Amino acid sequence: MIRRATRIIVPLTAVLALAACGITGPVGSDRTSERNPLDRGSEGRQRESTVWDLFSNSGDPNETVAVNRYLWNASLEILDFLPKQSVDPFTGIIVTGYGTPPGGGRPYRATIKVSDPALDARALKVSLQGPGGSAVAPDTVRAVEDAILTRARQLRVRDRNL
């Protein structure tokens, strides 16, 4: 008799637990009262997530990384003389240690952020810092940005000629 009861109770408990995952408010609550009175329908609203979204692979793999590959590779190439401390292609951030540029006399470190998948100057943010936290001339920062953008365009042109 106990076996028979567990055969019924265990699956029933599992079904009730899964059904409860879709409930977003107290039982019997009116979900329409939670809406914004200025909301004129479901246009523009995002779909609510469920427990099943954890197991679905519905995301576009091309949207997983929102970093322009040409800007990313150009940043790594242009600043290859600096030691890399942190490189994260998922957030688009490169942090380097101190190093002296070829032909230069003053060391600096760089933090680069590639924030957009477009090959655009607005997608690139470069921050340079001298030893002891001293500021680097804005012309130097602009020159590094220009060098990265120029190299990114060259890489893009080279890929199109394949």
UniProtKB/TrEMBL annotation:
InterPro entries: DUF3576 (IPR021959). Pfam families: DUF3576. Keywords: Signal. Residues 28-47 are annotated as: Disordered. Residues 1-19 form the signal peptide. This is DUF3576 domain-containing protein. Residues 31-47 have a biased composition (Basic and acidic residues).
